[in-house]
Amino acid sequence: MPENTVIQDLSEQEQIRRDKLKTLQEAGKDPYQIRKFEVTHHSSDILANFDALEGREVAIAGRLMTKRIMGKASFCHVQDLPGEIQVYVARDAIGEESYAEFKKDDIGDIVGIRGTVFKTKTGEITVHAISFTLLSKSLKPLPEKFHGLTNVDLRYRQRYVDLIMNPDSKDTFIKRSRIISAIRRYLDSQGFMEVETPMLVANAGGAAARPFETHFNALDEDFRLRISLELYLKRLIVGGLEKVYEIGRVFRNEGLDTRHNPEFTLMELYQAYTDYHGMMDLTENMYRFVAQEVLGTTTIVYNGVEMDLGKPFARVTMKDAVKQYAGVDFDEIHTLEEARAIAKEHHIEYEDRHKKGDILNLFFETYVEEHLIQPTFVMDHPVEISPLTKRKPEDPDYVERFEFFMNGWEMANAYSELNDPIDQRARFAAQEEQFAAGDEEANHTDEDFLNALEIGMPPTGGIGYGIDRMCMLLTDSAAIRDVLLFPTMKTL
Predict the structure, then answer these.
(1) Which of left, alpha, beta for 276 (phi over 0: left; psi -120 to 50: alpha)?
(2) What percent of the chain has pLDDT over 90?
């Protein structure tokens, strides 16, 4: 530590730990100078394979979590990635000097142990240390083991401590990694190609959301962080890459709640020569595959509610869902005035800019979403809220789009993608009018994307998945922050 570094407001325990470190450094035993330690086994390897490893030498490393000093011999527990294992430390086995140093080690220190595997009289699988090395000194005490890290805000701000103290939290993020890995395996097996597209863009389109804005000094131009992956991935379909997907962070300048974080993980995929029905089939198969791979079952339980991914997913039009749950039949509503009147009757608040289709969507959000617990595809949205989607040929006021719902949440959004450049230009123009009327989430015209469509895009199905919400359901996590390693937090 540089001599001019000033440490203020140290607790008694923190000062004691620094004093121990200083003593080690003065004796030429600075743990921070150790470069590597060869690990041969993790705790889970030893616990699962005791019969094969009994009496054999192993090398483990991890964090010291408990310590019981009993004269010339002691026990401790060391925590590594998979879990914990007991270590028996005897003076006669590791030497008097090393044993004296071990007794001074603190809970939270990182240690490396070489030893032999045995089972104690009480039947606990244990490593009998023949060497015990301090690899890194912990200068701050961990939270008390019994209570763990219970302050929720602190768990999010200090995820590194949360991962140490809360095994369930660590398990959640291990499962999250496995979920994303399983998604990739499934899509790769279906012939999809993973790609990367820009995060910093001039025109943040592809979704209804407010972007974060910044200025690029080198070009003296304003840029935005992407809110979607859509428009660049469609350019790749134009270019002849027939099946593409991207898993990446997107950024939306919106509020924080249990299901929203301004920075989150989205996956979008596009497949040439299919439509939104093809996206439904793909979604069913992918969700089943991922659940089976990660959980070993297609039945999941979230907050005590069982959801069955093994059965065919329900499919219902938005109009039929509103008719079922709100008792309003939009097939019988022919004008904007009629839509506004029925909205007033049901105390649905709308804005002057809202068209009939917008009001249908407001009914859906108010009356229907909370009921969609089991896997459900809600199909055929009004054109007013779907600026990038093909119209239904038999009913051009509606489009070939679905949203996938589970647990009352929107989990995915899919289209038969609009590939008519003339229609797309008109849709962008309508979005510009909405923006001028006060809709800050409306799309802006993207001339290069229109140019790509004019080159020619084949019939295409596309879908976007909320990866964080998928992880919430598959890990039974109450809030999106529980599945984000470092969620957005207000600066203290």
Answers:
(1) alpha
(2) 87
E strand or H helix at 412, and its extent? strand 409-416
Q: 356 is written with which tokens?
A: 């009939």
pLDDT digits (tens, 9 = 90+) for 372-404: 999 999 999 999 988 888 999 999 999 999 999
CA distance 61 to 74: 18
The two structure tokens encoding residue 312: 């065919």
391, amino acid identity? R
According to DSSP, the β-strands at 409-416 and 401-406 are: antiparallel
CB-facing half-sphere around the CA of 220: CA atoms within 13 A: 0
pLDDT tens sequence across 94-107: 999 999 999 999 99
Say how far apart CA 117 and CA 88 lie, in whole Å: 10
Strand, helix or coil at 133? strand
What the block records as the tokens of 42 is: 């993790």
Task: Report which of 242, 39, 265, 156 is spatially closest to residue 488, judged by C-alpha positions.
Answer: 156
| Domain residue ranges of the chain, discontinuous segments joined by + | 12-142, 165-313+374-483
What is the full DSSP assignment across 190-249?
TT-EE----SEESS--SSSSPPPEEEETTTTEEEEE-S-SHHHHHHHHHTT--EEEEEEE
Q: What is the CB neighbour count within 10 angstroms for residue 205?
A: 25
User: SS3 of 462, please?
Assistant: strand
Picking from 371, 380, 366, 382, the residue whose alpha carbon sits closest to that of residue 333 is 382
CATH architecture of 12-142: Beta Barrel (2.40)
CATH number for 165-313+374-483 (one of 3.40.190.10, 3.30.930.10, 3.90.1150.200, 1.10.10.10): it is: 3.30.930.10
3-class DSSP state of 288 = helix
Q: What are phi and psi of 136, to 5 degrees?
A: -160, 135
Rounded to whole angstroms, the Cα distance separating 135 from 109 reads: 8
Report whether 102 contacts 113 (CB < 8 A): no
Furthest C-alpha separation in the chain: 91
Residue 244, φ and ψ in degrees, nearest 5: -130, 150
